[in-house]
Amino acid sequence: MKILIADYIYTQKGFISKQAVAFTETVKEINTLEILKEKYPNAELIQTEPNSILYPGFINTHVHLEFSANKTSLKYGSFMSWLDTVIEHRDDLMGACDNTLMQKACKEMLSSGITTFGAISSFGNELEVCEETPQRVVFFNELIGSNAMYADMLYGDFMERVKASQNCTKASRVTPAIAIHSPYSVHPIILQKAVNVAKQEKLPLCAHFLESQAEREWLSSGTGDFEAFFKKYFNTSTPVTNIEEFMHAFDSYPTHFTHCVQATPKELDYLAKKGHSIAHCPRSNRYLGCGRLQIEALKLPFTVATDGLSSNDSLSIFDELRATLMLHNDIPIQALATSLLKSVTSDAAKVLNLNCGEVAVGKLADFAVITLPETPKREEEIALWSILHTKEVSHLFIEGEKYV
Ligand code: MCF
Ligand code: FE
User: Fold this and answer.
1) Which of 29, 54, 161, 277: disulfide with 124, CB 3.0–4.6 Å?
2) 21 within 8 A of 33, measured Cβ to Cβ
3) Which domain holds residue 6?
4) At what angle do helices 333-343 and 317-327 cross, to 10 degrees?
């Protein structure tokens, strides 16, 4: 048993003070230090620095580790130029992305307090790293392939990767999962097969959806920048699906849709009605010229996620939260800070169906302790000060084990 003492604990009821947490792999009790010491006299005491706040470990629901080698290869500014450079540099970037680089990416996430991440995997290259990293990993095997001629082969390869991720060692914290790349890149027949697998085997499911204006135009009318792209690389001139058909493919299974920047209010309402959620990647959207997701109007749960280094400059969840505050400059800042912390803790855990994301009895003891540079003058501002002042966490626990 361990007992952790911090000035504040972030809970569903707000920040509480003068309390400590007793835990093993899970949280056993939250009470005053005196009572906990009396009840668990042999427990190891962990006294954190003054002005520390205990948070549940942060959850980054969407990252592409395989693209960690990108620094200046991919062109930012507009989605289509970015995609062209993905095609151009993909092999080089994959070749340069060895285990050491991906371990560095995991470490960067860990230092910023991320105890769980959703890894979108195109080839399965990062499975070994994800098995070895201390973090909980929801391993999203990506299905991609719009050409009916190759669909069966691509689906076969995809299922092999799904199986490999289902056979991870018990010691690892990997959960197998499925990612549908996007409506423009996945043939509806294999899409439906993959959704059925997710449903039957109860695997978390995600999909990039309505990220760019070009995607919207291609899916609605077969025109725009994607027309030349598909002509050039695939010698086709018609989209394999449309927005409505794609959305309906997920009707019977809650899915985590990434981006949705270009979705209409009606489409967002539809997603909400079907119990789906959104991964909001503000820096990725900004860097790829995709626009701003109107989070103030959402009626469905959303998470804030970094996306990969393919469309970002860091994998720090606090860098992402600070950027989110800047992008949504019309939303009152204190309320926004509070809702963003929820989006990367309890809301994200619900989306990924994990028993973490809250400091509460019975939850997994995944914690991130942050330390403010001085005593917060007003309690209602702790959420904002936490986001603004944190570069690295001061302690981090996963399932009760200390890693930072
Ligand atoms: O989320 C961003 C932007 N949207 C789509 N795909 C990706 C992102 N970052 C990496 N990707 C990957 C995706 O998984 O890039 C490839 C896929 O394997 C693009 S499709 C040619
Ligand atoms: Fe992505």
Assistant:
1) 161
2) no
3) 2-56+357-402
4) 140
Which residue among 352, 367, 394 closes a domain? 352
Residue 107 and residue 256 in one domain? yes
The domain boundary residue, chosen from 335, 352, 369: 352
CA of 306 to the centre of ligand 2 (A): 9
Which listed ligand is nearest to 126 at the C-alpha? 1
User: Candidates 86, 154, 211: which one to mutate for ligand 1, based on the most atoms within 8 Å of Cβ?
Assistant: 86
Whether residues 237 and 129 share a domain: the answer is yes
pLDDT in tens, 1-43: 999 999 999 999 999 999 999 999 999 999 999 999 999 999 9
Ligand nearest to the CA of 142: 1
User: 34 CB contacts (<8 Å, ≥6 apart)?
Assistant: none
Tokens standing for 322? 């600070």
Domain harbouring 364, CATH code = 2.30.40.10
Query: Do 187 and 147 belong together in one domain?
Result: yes
* Candidate list 66, 211, 358, 399, residue with the active-site label: 211
Which ligand lies nearest to the CA atom of residue 290 in the structure? 1
77 and 214 part of one domain: yes
Same domain assignment for residues 154 and 109: yes
Query: How far apart (Å, rounded) are the C-alpha atoms in residues 109 and 137?
Result: 12
For tokens 């985590």, the residue is 256
**217 is known as an active-site residue:** no
Distance from residue 120's CA to the centre of ligand 2 (Å): 7
Q: Which atom, in ligand 1's list, is nearest to the CA of 179?
A: 14
Summarised one tens digit per residue, pLDDT across range 301-332 is 999 999 999 999 999 999 999 999 999 999 99
Position in ligand 1 atom list of the atom nearest CA 211: 4
176, 224: one domain:
yes
Pocket test for ligand 1, best of 62, 90, 93, 122 (most atoms within 8 A of CB): 122
* Alpha carbons 214 and 236: distance in angstroms, whole number: 16
For residue 81, the model assigns a pLDDT of 98
Number of domains in the chain: 2
The pLDDT value given to residue 169: 85
- Model confidence pTM above 0.85: yes
pLDDT of residue 171: 83
- Residues 47 and 192 both lie in one domain: no
What's the first-to-final CA gap in the chain, in angstroms?
18
161 and 191 within one domain:
yes
